[in-house]
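pls read this protein.

:::
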Amino acid sequence: MNGGDDADPRTEPEHFTVPPSWVPFPTNVAMRLYEAKKIFYVMGKNVSGVSDMFRFRSAVTACDVFSLRSCLEVEPEWLNLLGEIQSKPVFPVRGS
């Protein structure tokens, strides 16, 4: 997965219940099955005819940078991975 252009190889809710293979460092981050099923439900078209996933991907594609409430001291691997995957700068912003 590079540049955010590659399709996610996970196609079933069950695929999201284990850590993704494209994360290059050890992690236990994974969804519960009911959480993954909810994501798949949301990906379908809604009343407007445009899926929430399409809206999300459009916003990610159109943005120039990511600004997240986080810090490099807490999760440097994840912030760096986001920048690599999306090929965009990531600016962690500390909350007050």
Notes: The chain has a mean pLDDT of 86. The first strand starts at residue 66 and ends at 69. Residues 64-96 form one domain.
